Amino acid sequence: MVGRPSKTGAVSNRREPPAAAMLIVCPSCASRYELDGAKLGPDGRKVRCASCQTLWHVAPEPELPEVPSAEETQALLNEELEQAAAIAAQVSAQMAEGIDPAADSEPRKRSGPRPVRKKPQKTRKQPPRAVVVAASLSVFGLVLLGGLVWQRTLAARIAPQLADVFEMLGYPINVRGLTLGAVESGLVEDATGRFLVVEGDVTNITSSQTRVPPIEVAVKDAAGQTLYSWKTDPPRQELEPAELIRFRARLAAPPAAGQTVLVRFASSAAAEAGEARR
Q1: Which of 195, 235, 197 is nearest to 215 (CA)?
Q2: Can you tell me the distance from the alpha carbon of 35 to that of 145, in angstroms, rounded to the nearest whole number?
Q3: In order of start, what are the domains of the chain with their CATH numbers?
Q4: For residue 173, which of 157, 189, 186 has the smallest C-alpha distance?
Q5: N or C, fewer C-beta in 10 Å, the chain?
Q6: pLDDT digits (tens, 9 = 90+) for 104-138
Q7: pTM metric for this prediction
Q8: Burial call 59-97: b when 16+ CB within 10 Å, e when fewer
Q9: Long-range contacts, 140-146 (Cβ 8 Å, 24+)
Q10: Where are the alpha helices (DSSP H) in 36-69?
Q11: SS3 state at 174
């Protein structure tokens, strides 16, 4: 059967095609036709283009399932929700009775009555008192250690021996709030003799005025043994916040075996974090 060609994009005043009408397009010249789908049959049929006489096979459109109504969709949803709620209630009841739902879902033998399971009585064992005390002390120790690490500078000022402990834990501290940097040393000779000259910077890294202690200089040999040490006063006794001063120390006739110079603030071991080696 050959349909009537229609121009693409043209507006027609004819009535809309029946519900069974389908639109086909010629594979050769792209002419478009309206065809009654009911006349194609279940296997389709061959049609011929009225414009270019091309013959091709047209298959019927697949039948689409009917879309359920809103009432049917709601009914199906309610049924699924009821089934899910029933399953959830059954699982909760089995878990409350101490029954494994997975084991209960296995096929059961119907040959005999099901044995009645006795609900085991759960007894809660109390941990020994020593364990509770040890756990409490451990938690208290961790809290105390965390507080000391957080306020380690203040703790080291109160107990200077803690500075070495914090340094071993990977938390070095600067008790004084001063740093030594840009340290240089060298030998100088003039008419009066041979001198060791050591220079460096002292910086206040705090936000308040800080007192500068004497500076200790030590000359060491290749093995690290101290050959000679002396103390020198800084150019100023106090530094303002972020202030920097340059110090200079001289030693007449330094040891010939000296290899390195160690510079630090003269005080207890807690202040040795400001060391500088040249």
Answers
A1: 235
A2: 89
A3: 5-58 (no CATH), 139-173 (no CATH), 178-277 (2.60.40.10)
A4: 157
A5: N
A6: 555 555 555 566 666 666 656 666 666 666 766 66
A7: 0.39
A8: ebeeeeeeeeeeeeeeeeeeeeeeeeeeeeeeeeebeee
A9: none
A10: none
A11: coil
